[in-house]
Amino acid sequence: MVFRSEEMCLAQLFLQSGSEYDCISELGEQGLVEFRDLNPSVSSFQRRFVSEIKRCEEMERILGYLLREIQKINISVPEEDESPLAPPPRQVLEIMEQLQRLEMELSEVTRNKEKLQRNLLELTEYTHMLKITRTFIHSRSRRVKVEAFERMLWRVCKGYTIFSYAEVDENLADLDTVSMIAYFRMSREIL
What we know:
By secondary structure, the chain is mostly helical. The chain has four helices and three strands; from the N terminus they run H-H-H-E-H-E-E. A three-stranded antiparallel beta sheet has the order 1-3-2, covered by helices on one side. It comes from Liparis tanakae (Tanaka's snailfish).
């Protein structure tokens, strides 16, 4: 950390384009340098390094998203005492790809979790409706007619039917006969 009372000097660096990243990275990690913009009139979009800045901003956004999701499920993130060293440019691209993949996977997991929660809520609602209404039909029919009976109930009830059938436990003369039970979820549309 540089204090105001410390002796300072103003210097101008000219770096070759191949070594600029490594030199600036090393100087930044020392923490003894303050950089000044010698081209304040140039728009940030006209600068050579604008794509690197956008990449870093995108990585910062993704890391923020991942951190928020981690904190939602109460996983502690260890704090680092020191800032990590600046990665080389190739490694920055690899890190970016990994972060994008993690973001995509996590958002897909989050969507699937929400969908499963909605399905659970809907199934719980159906279960409660079945316990409350106790509406059912019990009949015997031939196996070949079970599908037709199910379609007919589905159409009559406008899709608000939970249908299941079970075979009769007793030995019957006609082995093609099954016992059917159809459960209905009552709603305003049916009423």
